[in-house]
From TrEMBL:
GO terms for molecular function: metal ion binding. Transmembrane segments: none annotated. The keyword Metal-binding applies. Keywords: Metal-binding. The keyword Metal-binding applies. Residues 1-12 have a biased composition (Basic and acidic residues). InterPro entries: HARBI1_dom. This is DDE Tnp4 domain-containing protein. It comes from Calocera cornea HHB12733. Its cofactor is a divalent metal cation. Residues 210-367 form the DDE Tnp4 domain.
Length: 424
């Protein structure tokens, strides 16, 4: 049988090139279609986004803005309502180091070297504007879009200036006497005790009150931190703090930025050290029953009310009534801080412990400024008037005040503990 031999037909070079060109044209067309679709999607998203640009705002951040109207008006009422400080105190912070730091420190930016020369005259805000922006933010729950309209700055600039000013303000507060957090020393214990005893005669030895402050915190993306910050008693995520207030309304110790799952007694470990080492016998803090004081060295340094149902003498009941009444002063102090600084009513950043610490320490030191310089202080209003009811007592109080609130206190060292803010 004859064999049939036949080779397969091979395309010519011309046919192969035509097929390749067709595939390339198809691929290019598909790529163009995809690019056009992506562009339309981006334009559609941009059309529905709500944001502010430079042209949406007033033209000059340093002139004729709502903030500049308040700033140049120099009315105490307006300053306190918007920034929490009166005119004199605002200028005190500027002159105490904030203005110099603002003008001599470059604003951190990714495209600018840290050692670069600062150019303060080219910034949208001067030092007063930077401080005002930060105080507006701290004393309110305003979002950046609202601040943009008040200061005539786009939100990205608002964020950058605010973070820059926050570091500068804390540095300023740490180095001026009015911003320090100091445990009493020597005769100051007796002076504070006298303020308490004038209103609560049975509390001979009480010089301050202590309480815990739990601040709402966002839920962390890290499961370990999420568990650490969850407070089972309050059924939410919190950052724990323990604050000690003297009878004059000042903070004398602040343990801050601890995980919300920690008990107040654990957060207050450094408070116990202050009581054991730096507090003379016969003086004590008023606290609630959440602060255990079973240690022998603490039994006389922390006094708590009788527990419900406990058997007690009439004198013990009277002592408890006065102790509960005085311990309320810690609640006043907490309310003064939370009521003044609206930023604390919003959840804190759960994933940045250093940012939380920076914010909290700045706010607690600003509280000292408000108490000492502005005079916004419910504790002082309750306990000091007893000393000023008569002409003779007014004279005594003026002399006592110079001892309690000296303008310049001894040089301090900022204690660097894990979460404690207290000056030595």
């Amino acid at each position: 049988m004859a064999s049939h031999l036949q080779d397969a037909h091979l395309p010519s070079d011309t046919e192969s090139d035509d097929s390749s060109d067709e595939h390339e044209r198809t691929a290019a067309f598909l790529l163009l279609v995809l690019q056009q679709a992506a562009l339309h999607q981006a334009q559609d998203r941009a059309a529905h986004r709500a944001y502010l640009t430079r042209h949406d705002l007033l033209p000059h951040p340093r002139r004729q803005t709502p903030f500049q109207q308040v700033l140049t008006g120099e009315v105490d009422r307006a300053y306190i309502a918007t920034m929490g400080l009166d005119v004199k105190t605002f200028k005190r912070l500027l002159s105490a180091g904030f203005e110099v730091a603002w003008n001599t420190t470059p604003i951190p930016r990714s495209e600018v070297a840290p050692s670069s020369e600062p150019r303060p005259h080219q910034r949208s805000l001067d030092a007063a504007g930077g401080l005002g922006l930060l105080l507006y933010w701290l004393n309110s729950t305003m979002i950046d879009k609202t601040l943009s309209q008040l200061f005539a700055l786009v939100p990205s600039t608002i964020t950058r200036y605010r973070e820059f000013a926050l570091h500068l303000l804390l540095r300023t507060l740490q180095h001026i006497p009015e911003g320090r957090i100091l445990w009493p020393k020597d005769d100051e214990f007796a002076q504070l005790r006298d303020l308490v005893v004038a209103r609560h005669p049975l509390l001979n030895g009480a010089f301050g009150s202590v309480d815990g402050l739990n601040l709402p915190t966002a839920t962390s993306s890290d499961e370990r931190w999420q568990n650490a910050q969850y407070n089972g008693w309050l059924h939410g995520h919190f950052t724990s703090n323990v604050l000690v207030f003297s009878a004059s309304g000042e903070l004398i110790h602040a343990a801050i930025n601890a995980p919300g799952s920690w008990h107040d007694a654990r957060v207050a470990s450094k408070v116990y050290e202050q009581l054991e080492i730096k507090t003379p016998e016969g003086f004590y803090l008023a606290a609630d029953t959440a602060f255990p004081h079973n240690r022998r060295t603490l039994k006389s340094k922390i006094r708590t009310p009788l527990k419900s149902g406990a058997r007690a003498t009439q004198q013990e009941l009277q002592f408890t009534d006065q102790l509960v009444s005085y311990r309320q002063s810690a609640e006043w102090g907490m309310r003064a801080i939370q009521g003044s600084f609206g930023r604390l009513r919003l959840p804190l950043d759960a994933n940045d412990a250093s940012a939380r610490h920076l914010l909290l320490e700045t706010i607690f030191r600003l509280h000292q400024i408000r108490v000492r310089l502005v005079g916004i202080n419910q504790l002082k209003n309750v306990y000091e008037p007893i000393w000023t009811e008569t002409k003779e007592l007014k004279h005594v109080w003026r002399n006592l005040q110079t001892m309690l609130f000296p303008e310049i206190r001894r040089a301090d060292r900022v204690a660097q503990f894990h979460y404690v803010v207290v000056d030595e």
